[in-house]
């Protein structure tokens, strides 16, 4: 399974981000490309410890059972619900959002698993650094495929 902590996998994600343009259109979902980038940046802030969204009641009940969805080898389903605090609906600047996300990914990979926050995922709960690394790669891969790259 790919992980954002592997330099090769990080480089692949960064190259795919470079293949996006502000004219990229989604194959599914409602976000435009700049909103998707902002969403991925907001998500990235959770394992980095910059954001600590609370656990939702549904996550408390079923999140632990569903946790493998986040880091297993199966693709994430299209139009899967997201954490309310990282749902992006306002207009964003494509170039600013792409650069911000690239910097976050690079910093997270460079800092390594030991710098992962202990704060639980708002739905899935407590994750190991290895699970975060796989899940972050999988989340980014999901959204890049959403925009055809």
Automatic annotation (TrEMBL):
InterPro entries: DinB/YfiT-like, DUF1569. This is DUF1569 domain-containing protein. It comes from Bacillus mesophilum.
């Amino acid at each position: 399974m790919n992980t954002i902590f592997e330099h090769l996998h990080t480089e692949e994600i960064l190259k795919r981000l470079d293949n996006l343009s502000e004219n990229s259109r989604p194959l599914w979902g409602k976000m435009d490309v700049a909103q998707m980038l902002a969403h991925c940046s907001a998500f990235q802030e959770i394992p980095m410890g910059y954001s600590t969204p609370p656990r939702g009641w549904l996550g408390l009940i079923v999140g632990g059972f569903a946790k493998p969805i986040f880091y297993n080898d199966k693709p994430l389903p299209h139009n899967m619900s997201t954490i309310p605090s990282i749902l992006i609906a306002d207009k964003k600047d494509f170039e600013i959002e792409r650069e911000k996300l690239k910097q976050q990914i690079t910093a997270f990979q460079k800092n390594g698993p030991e710098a992962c926050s202990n704060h639980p995922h708002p739905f899935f709960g407590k994750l190991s650094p290895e699970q975060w690394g796989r899940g972050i790669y999988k989340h980014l891969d999901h959204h890049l495929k959403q925009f055809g790259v």
